[in-house]
Amino acid sequence: MTATSDVLDHLDTGLWTYREPLRFFGLEIGRVMVVVRLSSGGLLIYSPAELTADLRGALAELGDVRFVVPASKLHGHLYMEQYREAYPRAELLAAPGLDRRRTDLDFDGLLGGTPDPRWSADLDQTAFLGHRWLTEIEFYHRPSRTLILGDICYHVTGDAPLSTRAVARLAGMYGRLAVPPDLRRTIVNEDAARNSVRKILAWEFDRVLVGHGSVLESGGRAAVADAFDWLR
Ligand SMILES: [Fe+2]
């Protein structure tokens, strides 16, 4: 049996990440799933990865999977059906628009801009608004002062493959928290987006986890403020 520590990265009290490979337009950018152990003892999975036997074993050592949440209708919903099957008692929550996209899944609820009381002791949340087709749900893990994002920022650093680093450099995204240019170009309501960033920056986070890229261990608030400087 594989030890939990071989499968998941333990970042802080009640906080783990899991990485799986992902190629996007021919570039290896990887994908990050986040596991939060709530004060109640149950687990909340953000952007679930493919549920391999190793991952399932590692999660079993941490606690019961209670909630499975995607970042948005585009990020983090691909394997939700596997969690439904493996954890019949877990609730699957839909990000805005995902319930229409995944009619094969019977969702237990919809995510919005305020946290469910069952996880609000540990996690705050807000919706990133103002994008043409995407409303992403962002979380703040209070005990570890960690901001959890999906696609609104990437963090490509030295551990990424050479070709990925080269493209990130060209796009001015290398070595820092950065909003992908395509997302930046498709903001249709700047006031709404600005307000969303303001809400995020009101949290006292230091660490930032992104859906694609490496962990930013500290200086997160300044890095987010900098990434959205063009908007503010
Ligand atoms: Fe993504």
TrEMBL record:
Alphabetical list of InterPro entries matching this protein: DUF4336 (IPR025638), RibonucZ/Hydroxyglut_hydro (IPR036866)
Question: SUPFAM superfamilies, alphabetically?
Answer: Metallo-hydrolase/oxidoreductase
PANTHER family to which the protein is assigned, alphabetical = METALLO-BETA-LACTAMASE DOMAIN-CONTAINING PROTEIN, YALI0C07656P
Name of this chain's protein: DUF4336 domain-containing protein
Q: Which organism is it from?
A: Haloprofundus marisrubri
